[in-house]
Amino acid sequence: MPRFQPEPPHRHGNPAGTAVVLVNLGTPEAPTAPALRRYLKQFLSDPRVVEIPRPVWWLILNGIILNLRPKKSAAKYATVWTDEGSPLRVHTERQAKLLKGLLGERGHQVTVTWAMRYGQPSVPAVLNHLKAEGARRILIIPMYPQYAASTTATVVDEAARWLLGTRNQPEMRFLRNYHDDAGYLAALEKSVRRHWQANGPLSDQDRLLISFHGLPKRSLDLGDPYFCECHKTGRLLAERLGLTEQQYKICFQSRFGKAEWLQPYTAPTLHAWGGAGIRRVDVICPGFSADCLETLEEIAQEGRDDFLAAGGKEYHYIPALNEDPDWIHALGDIAERHLAGWETKTAFDPHALETSAREAFKFGART
Fold it and tell me: What EC number(s) is this enzyme filed under (predicted)?
């Protein structure tokens, strides 16, 4: 087997192309047990996702999990599946289209596309296509606001594996995180305030729950910054909203297995609040750039049922940023910062011309 993939035919005189790739976690191809089995096998076989000795984990995964979990997960996916497909896939594709339009309006000549770390379209398939189309500079944006070895790092791993098999490598850049980006936080703040406009503000007896995807506590002990970055996002959002420490809480959802995970846990918190007389809870999940199973089923459905069954009266899930215009503009700003130094502007850019004129005027005034 050859070490390197065949190179596409070289075309002399073509300008170097620039591309931006949005990468999200992934999704099964359909809400069925066979599709979930394929997806979960790829996802849970990643050593960054599950840090258990490989022989032991292989037996657990193939002997138990892949025989029991696909059917249960498929039933959950069926409750959120749309006519267009998986919500995560639909939103990620739309975000890429909107980002391409925005960067085009700002004068950038770039290709903008998307990939899934697990499932299709895969990162290697997308990179192969971009390279064949002449992309020599590629910016990869993992769509995880907070860095974790089990999310952001796996995207870098997959791209690096692709580079190892590529003879004529393109220049590549990676976004690490954007957990404290001002534009991202502003978009979150506006989404909450729009929700409060429609449903009324929180009273002193109501709560905002800021829920993030959970990780094993061991990841924090080993040096993963995820826990700290989640808390920074939550704290900065609460400050923007003017909330007191009693009005909000940062929690972690999606616990799996018997090991201790990052705490406090979301589901027990909702149950406790319902039993303690908390009347209303609004929930937002800032760790998800697009709605998916974990937000639409686990939080919007299961979380509501837990809170109301425990005695709560009113429960609201605030949707992920998805195609929110403020978020797309923030994403455009993030992309532009990481494209800096690469020639992506069109030949005539009125904005750049205006900026150059201002700078020339300032220089003239100084001299």
Answer: 4.98.1.1
Strand pairing of 248-253 and 314-318?
A: unpaired
pLDDT in tens, 289-344: 999 999 999 999 999 999 999 999 999 999 999 999 999 999 999 999 999 999 77
Q: Yes or no: say if 24 and 93 are a contact pair by the CB < 8 Å rule.
A: no
Question: How far, in Å, CA of 103 to CA of 263, rounded?
Answer: 39
* Residue 305 CB-half CA count within 13 A: 6
H or E stretch at 93: helix 87-105
Q: Tell me the C-alpha distance between 68 and 72, whole Å.
A: 7
The domain 182-318 having CATH identifier 3.40.50.1400: the answer here is yes
Cross-strand bridge partners of residue 22: 114, 141
Domain with CATH 3.40.50.1400 in the chain: 17-27+86-177+325-339, 182-318
User: 213: annotated binding-site residue?
Assistant: yes
**Distance in angstroms (rounded) separating the CA atoms of residues 292 and 285:** 11
Q: Per CATH, the architecture of 17-27+86-177+325-339 is what?
A: 3-Layer(aba) Sandwich (3.40)
pLDDT at 8: 86
To the question of whether residue 294 is assigned a binding role by annotation, the answer is yes
φ, ψ of residue 201 to 5 degrees: the values are -70, 165
